[in-house]
Amino acid sequence: MSRAPTAPATELDAPPPVEPATRETIHALRDAVRAHVALRLDDPADAAQAGAMAVPACVLWNQFLRFDPASPDWPDRDRFVVSSTRHRPLLDALMRLAGQTPAPDGPTVEYGVHPAVEMAFGPSGQGVGAAIGMALAERQLAARFGRSIVNHRVWALSCGTELATGVAMEASSLAARMRLDRLTVLFEIAPHEEDEAEDTLARYAATGWMVRKVDADDHDAVQAALSAALRSRKPSILACSVTLRPAPRPPASPGAGPEPDHSTLLWAGAARRGASARRSWLRRLVKHRYRGEFERVATRRLPPFWREDWRRTWHMSAMPAILPASGPDTTLGYGRQGLEILRDLLPEMLCLSSRRGRERTEAMPADQALPDCGTLVHGLAALLNGIAVHGGLVPCGAITFVAIDRMRPALRFAAMMRRQVIYLLTDDGLALSEDGAGWLPVEQLASLRAMPNVLVFRPADRRETMECWELALRRADGPSLIALSPMASGVPAPGLRPYRPRDGSARGGYVMEEARGQRQVTLIATGSEIGIARQAQLLLARDGIGAALVSLPCWELFAGQDAAYRDQVLGDAPRIGIEAASGFGWDRWLGPRGTFIGMETFCEAAPSHELYRRLGITAERVHETAIRLVNETGRDFQSPSGQKADGHRARSAAGGIT
What we know:
By secondary structure, the protein is an alpha/beta fold. The protein is built from 24 helices and 15 strands.
């Protein structure tokens, strides 16, 4: 789809005019907010700290923040991100007094319950990174649809300790490099935090942010600083020096009931201004040439018939050469092929990459180039969460597998918020074995599989890579990781039956090749180790031993299948698990008689083929282990998947409990 023409430099691009508020109005709003906070918190010290930023917050909400209480999910509203839990009571007070929530005395509003709460409270620094990701999403959508329907800002309320975290500094460095000038961060400076705050402000100024410092109780200074942020061509940070004062408590009413609260009337002007802006926006949207496409991406819907287009283009496209040494039969090559196809089919796909990830995937075409994130992968992951929360885009990140350890807090945050983020993990398995043990993902795969609401895909070949891409795109309620290897898997090998279950990856696991005759052992593998398992299967067939080959590209999806299907795939014969990673977690699939062949320790640097030999992840060892297990059991087993060697179907038999 062609890009919408950018709106000319009109009133749409200029900062909206700010009407000065009287000192009495701001003070009345401040007192109402602090009184509400005091009612929520029993400890006066906690209430004083929570209400310390009341004046900057009231100036922002009353004069600058563009929102409509009647439509809190309006796509072109300003985003207000509260990233620190210490400001939770302040956010609750602002929302209730501004009319965002109908029940003044109801419980605290949480993320996922009300659309005005932009994101959940998570690990320190993640909120700032997400706010930066939202600003990036706003810029990308404006470049595509024009400023007539995408023209909002991102405001974040943070604290000094959060801004000093590594993830916040990484994300802020990316924001300065991208010149995200529609982002403003406000944070408080308590008297005992002055020295640390000065150091933080110096770092942000050196990074390329506009930095201002004001007295939090001086509403004129706050208003002037926020106005300067609107005019700035850099991301802005506003440091507010606070003085902790006891929050006023409303006097107890001597009558039968409490006196009516008229403080919500103070926000009427801001509500009218927001409602008027939304009505004007709706009129522009109705006339916009890309209205249908904008509404589609705003509601997070994939295009009609995208799956048919995706599969047709996949099968018709030629395999690109990734690296001279990798060859065509690699999941990394297939992953890049999918990324290139999806950029044409889904214009909302936005991919950020580390330097190594860009080298492996060549992630951005020239006309959409974004600076690579280098080694700032923690900040990269935080930005992806913000893009996902903002809406309108499908965030994708390309990084090396071992770098996932630095992205784990952001990944966990995405899983907790149930947001769609796709990670392409390059250099899976022993791909970087020559660089030493520090680059070998030994325990990472097991730890990722243990994280709730995360799908980990490890495809073995071209077909599985296509299916895993599709599953990740269709999943809208959590992050998905696709582990890609530059090493050839050797699948399909000579003699491998063309039959496979349709969409076997969608069930997490399936029988790739049934045993020739009765099943005596089951070989279970993922990723590039499928090739090793296939070679061992051929060696066993030569010895007259029937071995079934099972692929488990996604454990989480396989665990979600009913027990009958899992038993049908795994069978009741002895099982051997093969994976170039830790065996932690494999017991659930191998059962009491099973054996795992993998990587249980760190190793010295060596070429991948040599390291496979040293670790014993070879077809010969699998062959020897299978013979031992068959001799120990001394009997044949049914082929519960119902497949026969000639490709016909046989009646299924139930297997044992795993």
